[in-house]
Design a protein that fits this description.
The structure holds two protein chains of two kinds.
Chain A (H helix, E strand, L loop, with lengths): L1 H25 L5 H5 L6 H10 L6 H12 L2 E5 H6 L4 E6 L2 E6 L13 H36 L4 H15 L2 H15 L1 H4 L8 E3 L6 E3 L5 H27 L2 H8 L4 H31 L1 H7 L4 H10 L3 H29 L7
Helix pairs in contact in A: 1-4, 1-15, 6-7, 6-10, 6-12, 6-14, 6-15, 7-10, 8-10, 8-13, 10-12, 11-12, 12-15, 13-14, 14-15
Chain B lengths: L2 H12 L2 H20 L12 E5 L15 H10 L4 E3 L5 E3 L2 E6 L5 E6 L4 E5 L5 E5 L2 H12 L23 E5 L2 E5 L7 H5 L16 H6 L7 E7 L3 E6 L18 E5 L4 H9 L5 E3 L3 H7 L8 H4 L3 E15 L14 H10 L2 H9 L3 E3 L22 H11 L10 E6 L4 H14 L2 E6 L2 H9 L5 E7 L5 H5 L20 H12 L7 H17 L2 E13 L3 E2 L15 E2 L2
Parallel strand pairs in B: 1-12, 16-17, 16-18
Antiparallel strand pairs in B: 2-3, 4-5, 5-9, 6-7, 8-9, 10-11, 11-12, 13-19, 14-18, 14-19, 15-19, 20-21
Classes of the chains: A mainly alpha, B alpha+beta.
Chain lengths: 349, 565
């Protein structure tokens, strides 16, 4: 319990730091009213927009109001509470209302939609894409790593290690562009894969939503290439180490086949560093698939954030950063616990 | 499950030969199923579905708040205004059958059509209708003018009407609407033809802004069936639309419009080439040379596959100056000789040919595009431009400086190549230019705040009238109050502009045309701006698209489009 409290305290301080940092950072971005008005808008209209968005307040007050919106316990005057999409309970005292609520991420400057809902919807897309990428990376990476370790020093090993080195050095935005162009355009007649697309689409008459799984293939492959290459190398290296251990030799001496000794004895012991790596990679896939999502137009957290940044949509950018930080924190904590659970030599401190 | 159980499970189930086999089978299945399921069923639809892509986000469908061309194109399918524009961009009746202007030019009386209905859609997609009446017009236009709404279109009535809106917009009966002005406004009909003049049902008065933005209800040829943000927007044919074609067939011909949102223009272009879209608008540097020859024609390999419409577009691309003072810095551009030198030095035909593949006309007739200024005179031939530039430069105080002070030219990244060419050209003249790249939003902000000495800009007509271009130099519109970013001040120009705006001497008469020509000539003489070129728009479409046209306002009119696959 104590480590959890300690970690939660750490998360809160990180979130607070992020809020303040982004507030300062946003001062360097173009004013939101410039992005919301046409070329002929006069100063009066701009002032009205600024007032409506609450940007006419001093920055420190804006930050405080934002923290009040984020906080589970918050205080509003009745008019302010009415303007917000709050979910929770309120106790009224005079013209003030005390709320016990879910964190409120405000509404988008551009779309006027609640940011929480927008981000959650996008997060589901990112999550599915990251899971698919991770499955591909694991399903292909581990067997290739084991194979390379078993054939250490032979041409198969060199080939696998060489290819994985290329995979590691290929940034995801590059592989995304390459895959999109090659499989989605040049060889489209053979692959039938689209250059862009989200997990679901709408039919031509707008009547139904259609799940389009094949839209996921190229982005998942592009996103999975780097972790795949890392898993190959990691599995290979730890397996080489494990295969040279006494317990594997003993297992073989007891009459187990090479296959059994490898998969029943060596591989489980080689899993620990892989699990740590999977946790880390999964977090970064969730938070770092920005370019892949953007190139494939995959409706996810990354695409939403990039577009919000381009439009100076402060609530969406802030919400996305805080959301990503929380996801990182949760995944990191889960990985640590899993690590402790699998390896009894490690203790949580 | 304990740790021991877990490892037992791993031993029994997971780590076996089967896992490898399973993972590869699964992978194979995933690929085969994926590829098999990738057939685009929509393409086989017998219905008339028009598809195009928007590379700019659509964030609202409320006519009072739309600001980009992508949004305007969509709302113009859903809504109508009192007035529309014909192919020559002259005001023609739309929801108003006809109108009269009072003798003092202060009251417009619009007589509305009686056969126009709003198309309401419920959540199940069921349609219902209600007749459009004058009180809807009162609501819609009062909404735009209401400061509480903070609409970016409030400027269309700014300075022209009383602040008591119930004295301005009147509905004497269901089919008559009266608009009272405080001063004559020659361009009022043009202003009402913009999206800010679209008519909404008065029931919207009780709705939140966000609801109006997501659930538009109009009288246009299409209605919104579905909008999944950044994925797809589907417009369906309005079966009760009031317009008919020459053979009395109901319009529109299309059953639906599908708008996709692929942000990368190059990707969208490849998808267009692959036949995924029926129409593609505009070009980007990355594939311009691939598609177009030097003379704005499609290369033969593309001409066989697609159709193109190239039309003059009311957009002047320019380099602007700020003529005000900078703290602790001399603004060398306050010197008219230096400004003129920079203007003459640019070989505009060459610039259009090499940077735009001929897609545009050299900006040598002032800031107002020639199509809006019939009396425009070509001031300088490009052949003697350099001689003029050198002569003007020698007269400037900047030329007398031993160490040439640096002048910052601000631009966005997409115009960098053109600006580097200008830097090199002006460098040959002796002007020390440094190119500074900003994001679009930041460039707009700094320009509005008067913090940029020299900047690249473009002015797209809000409505088809020279007045809209000349407003960029009218003194009361000094930025940030208006679009006079140069802070140009010239008493004679101001007087001419006031006359043009009020239509003194006749709204359509030759006096107004002469005033426009005079005002444009002052701008050419004082050079508060360097017009680089008058833009042209390019529309590409598949061979099976018929009835799609274009005009100088680059409007997307789809009600007469047919697909003959």
């Amino acid at each position: 319990m104590k480590p959890l409290l300690k970690k939660s305290g750490f998360l809160l301080s990180v979130l607070l730091g992020l809020v303040l940092f982004i507030f300062i950072l946003f001062q360097a971005l173009p004013n939101a009213e410039e992005m919301l008005t046409s070329q002929r808008a006069d100063a009066k209209t701009k002032q009205a927009i600024v007032a409506e968005l609450g940007l006419d307040q001093p920055v420190h007050l804006q930050a405080l109001y934002y923290l009040n919106d984020l906080s589970p316990i918050a205080c509003y005057d009745t008019a302010s509470a009415k303007r917000r999409y709050l979910t929770g309970f309120a106790i009224r005292s005079g013209s003030m209302e005390w709320w016990l609520k879910l964190p409120y991420l405000r509404i988008s400057f551009q779309t006027k939609q609640p940011v929480g809902g927008m981000l959650f919807q996008a997060f589901v897309g990112t999550m599915i894409l990251a899971l698919a990428a991770m499955l591909i990376a694991l399903a292909v990476g581990i067997p290739l790593g084991v194979m390379a370790a078993m054939k250490q020093g032979k041409w198969v090993d060199h080939l696998i290690v060489g290819l994985s080195a290329i995979g590691i050095s290929m940034p995801s935005f590059f592989s995304a562009m390459l895959f999109s162009w090659l499989f989605g355009f040049v060889w489209h007649a053979y692959t039938n894969l689209p250059m862009t697309g989200s997990l679901w689409e709408v039919d031509a008459l707008g009547e139904h939503k259609i799940w389009v799984w094949c839209n996921m293939i190229l982005p998942a492959l592009a996103l999975g290439i780097r972790p795949l290459a890392v898993f190959v190398q990691l599995t290979r290296n730890t397996m080489v180490e494990m295969l040279a251990q006494d317990f594997v030799r003993t297992a073989k001496a007891k009459g187990l086949s090479q296959w059994q000794a490898t998969f029943k004895h060596a591989l489980p012991n080689a899993l620990n560093p892989l699990i740590t790596s999977v946790g880390g990679w999964f977090s970064s896939l969730l938070a770092g698939s920005f370019f892949t999502e953007y190139i494939f137009q995959w409706r996810g957290l990354g695409k939403v954030t990039i577009e919000a940044l381009q439009q100076s949509d402060f609530p969406v950018v802030m919400g996305a950063v805080l959301f990503t930080a929380c996801v990182f924190f949760i995944l990191h904590t889960l990985t640590e616990w899993l690590y402790v659970w699998i390896d009894p030599r490690v203790r949580y401190e | 499950m304990t740790r021991k159980d877990f490892f037992r499970w791993v031993d029994d189930k997971f780590i076996s030969k089967g896992v490898i086999l399973l993972s590869f089978t699964g992978y194979l299945l995933f690929t085969v199923l994926g590829l098999g399921g990738c057939k685009n069923v929509d393409k086989k639809s017998p219905q008339q579905i028009f598809r195009y892509n928007e590379d700019v986000s659509v964030t609202t469908l409320d006519p009072a708040f739309v600001k980009s061309q992508s949004e305007i194109w969509i709302v113009s399918q859903i809504y109508n205004g009192l007035v529309d524009l014909d192919a020559q961009l002259r005001p023609v009746p739309a929801l108003a059958q006809r109108w009269e202007l009072s003798g003092d030019q202060l009251a417009y009386t619009f007589h509305l059509r009686r056969d126009v209905n709003f198309c309401f859609v419920d959540k199940l997609g069921q349609l219902s209708q209600r007749r459009m009446v004058a009180s809807d017009v009162v609501y819609s236009l009062s909404r735009i003018a209401d400061p509480a709404l903070a609409s970016p279109g409030a400027w269309i009535f700014a300075g022209k009407i009383d602040s008591q809106l119930n004295r301005v917009f009147l509905a004497p009966n269901d089919s008559t609407f009266v608009l009272r002005l405080t001063k004559p406004a020659a361009s009022l009909l043009g202003l009402l033809s913009t999206n800010f003049g679209y008519i909404l049902p008065k029931e919207f008065a009780a709705k939140e802004k966000s609801e109006i933005s997501r659930n538009p209800v109009g009288t246009g040829p299409f209605y919104l069936r579905r909008w999944e943000e950044e994925i797809k927007l589907v417009l369906r044919k309005n079966p009760h639309y009031h317009e008919k074609d020459e053979q009395r067939n109901p319009l529109p011909y299309l059953d639906a419009i599908n708008v996709s949102f692929v942000k990368n223009k190059q990707t969208a272009f490849m998808q267009f080439v692959a036949g995924e879209y029926d129409f593609f608008n505009g070009l980007e540097g990355s594939f311009k040379d691939e598609l177009l020859s030097d003379h704005a024609t499609l290369k033969p390999e593309y001409a066989a596959k697609m159709k193109a419409i190239i039309t003059p577009f009311l957009n002047t691309e320019y380099v602007g100056y700020y003529l005000g003072d900078f703290p602790n810095q001399t603004n060398w551009l306050q010197d008219v000789h230096l400004r003129k030198a920079l203007f003459y030095a640019v070989d505009k035909p060459k610039l259009v040919r090499f940077f735009r593949n001929g897609l545009g006309d050299a900006g040598d007739r002032g800031f107002v595009p020639p199509s809006l200024n019939e009396l425009a005179q070509k001031e300088a031939e490009s052949t003697d431009g350099w001689t003029n530039a050198v002569a003007e430069f020698r007269k400037s105080s900047y030329a007398q400086q031993k160490q040439k002070p640096m002048i910052l030219l601000s631009t966005t990244a997409d115009y960098l190549d053109m600006m580097v060419y200008l830097q090199e050209t002006w460098g040959r003249l002796g002007v020390n230019i440094k190119v500074d790249i900003q994001t679009g939003g930041m460039l707009r902000q700094l320009r509005n705040e008067g913090k940029l000495m020299l900047f690249r800009g473009s002015w797209i007509a809000d409505y088809p009238d020279a007045e809209n271009f000349l407003a960029c130099f009218y003194e009361p519109y000094f930025s940030p109050n208006g679009p006079n970013y140069a802070h140009f001040s010239h008493p004679e120009f101001n007087e001419l502009y006031a006359n043009i705006e009020s239509g003194k001497g006749g709204v359509d008469g030759s006096v107004r045309s002469q005033n426009i020509a005079k005002a444009n000539a002052i701008l050419m003489d004082q050079a508060p701006v360097i017009p680089l070129y008058y833009d042209k728009s390019i529309r590409l479409m598949q061979p099976w698209v018929e009835g799609l046209t274009n005009d100088a306002a680059n409007r997307l009119v789809l009600k007469r489009v047919k697909l003959k696959r």
